[in-house]
Amino acid sequence: MQKVAQKSPKVALFATCLTDTLYPATARAVVTLLERLGCSVEFPLDQTCCGQMHFNTGYPDHARGLATSYQRTFAGYDAVVVPSGSCTGMVRDIHPQLGASPVATYELSEYLVDVLGVTDVGAYFPHRVTYHPTCHSLRMLGVGDKPLSLLRAVRGLDLVELPDAESCCGFGGTFAVKNSDTSTAMLSDKMRHVLDTGSEVLTAGDNSCLMHIGGGLSRLRTGVRPVHLAEILASTEEDPWSPATR
Amino acid sequence: MVTRNPVTWLGSPKFPDAARTALANTQLRSNLRKATGTIRGRRAAAVDEMTDWEDLRLAGEALKDEVLTNLDVYLERLEKSVTDRGGVVHWARDAAEANEIVLRLVRETGADEVVKVKSMATAEIGLNEALEAGGVAAIETDLAELIVQLGHDRPSHILVPAIHRNRSEIREIFRREMPDVPDGLTDEPRDLAEAARAHLRRKFLSARVAISGANFAVADTGSIVVLESEGNGRMCLTLPETLITVMGIEKLVPTWSDLEVFLQLLPRSSTAERMNPYTSVWTGVTPGDGPQQFHLVLLDNGRTATLADKVGRQALRCIRCSACLNVCPVYERTGGESYGSVYPGPIGAILTPQLVDDPHDKQAASLPFASSLCGACYEVCPVRINIPEVLTHLRARSVQARGRSPESIAMAAAAWVFNSPSRYERAQRLATFARLLSRNGRITRLPGPGAAWTSSRDVPVPPKQSFRAWWKENRG
Question: What is the model's pTM?
Fold first, then answer.
């Protein structure tokens, strides 16, 4: 494990409404991981949602209020860490358009690699894994190969490249419901590529995309499990990851 | 008289319904997967060769923005330069006016047949149909456009209108519809091209009038520029006595040297070629050489209204390269016809509703939602049109026009919940009741709008405890 800065950075966790409500194991993993790396983590209880669903579905006025709340909640922190590329993109690119002043907000892999300067976080994850670079991480944030460099440093992890990785899984928020047939056609290709890798685990930096691909993988009983990047990075030999008990 | 703007095809279903039909067409799916995959790879390679690609994109964006900001000035300058060089300029507010002008000009020549250079503007206004109604036959000379015309089909791609057809289908169309089809025609591309060449050559030599669109018009010099790959366009642009060009008012560049930027951006983005094969340029009329009558019809058809929208106007930067179609995961699966317009794909999803300019047109209003907002289109756009930004902007316009709906009520309720941490926490506790829907750790069926999700995807079973509840219990 690489050493992190001497003085312990104080970070706020923005869990995102989806992860907070449906994937608490991911948010707990972020806390475990950041604390292991020497950060002190706070979870401001005033946080709710970044407003992405509202904004992307055509309700910018509702999103505006949520952007303002976000700014109010996190204004005092040096850094906000988010286990989601698309929510980070919403905060960074869209909130200023909605009149909210920017708050230093980082997607998890950006915070680890760019701010803390680590790629080896001391993780252990003895599974065959493939990584899906989610669209907003890739194109809005430009996280590039940061998640992959983190995964490559994980002991025991057998990383298999995902074919046609950069094509969208078909989630797109309400798109998955409004254009369910097209979304499913995109999903089926994504699942085919995931299955081609022979992986046990599909990982990504966004639980929304994982919920979508995972929902398809589960429906077809493929036996491939979606696991958020944070949970892989939090897993160690002493305290290895196990499927969340729900 | 109020006429329907034919930018969309009458009777087209809303996008989700049209897509459902297209998705079930296995031949279409296979043809498109193959074709878009090939063009995608080639474009990426052609663009990767350029070390200054991002600078070129910025230059293209800046030039187009300059034109759009001062459109009135440049249009008048163009009108003067074209007129000075012996051309005649006509102004058309909408499709009906443009069609009327073109039909009148053709009639004045006494011709009852015209040859056409592939043109999006004339497709947008439904010119062929208008000419036919006026007793003039319009013959498409671009190979793909000819395939569409002979097949009584609709174009499904901006650059490759017959992309949804494979070669055996094209052979069938030729055998069925081409009057002078050679015996024993095979489905070899060379054979098909030869058949089209022989068919068209006769038309080029007899046609007295040609109709074209324009890729660019230089305001300073009055020069019109058409890019094509086959040489058929050049036949049309040089052989007939009369040339009529229909051009959207946004197609201007200020000066001759500005073409340098676009002649690099366009070929690599559209056909993955380093240099465009046939670039034709003409300036007014040259005595004794080429068409001796030149008419330029400047078409508005919703463009001024689009220009008035601060966010939406960037769609007018489009140079019709179709790179966004080729990288779009939605287009690749649904094809172009699902968009119900001559402008399909991501650019169509933002351009069509603006040109239609009727927020109550349900088909057009469904187009901005035909995207997962993956952003692949913005990444490749040579003039940096932020398509996802315009999509969300137009979604908001559609939502406003629709007024109160079950969705708007649900969205307002969700916002009300998210606006208060305590309400949000109570909603989270309620969500845990969804655990009751699970069987063997899976939720496979949801009621209401959720059914569209569970038609193909399971839903995660909510945990016993949210993260927030865990934090309060352990860290609070």
Answer: 0.96
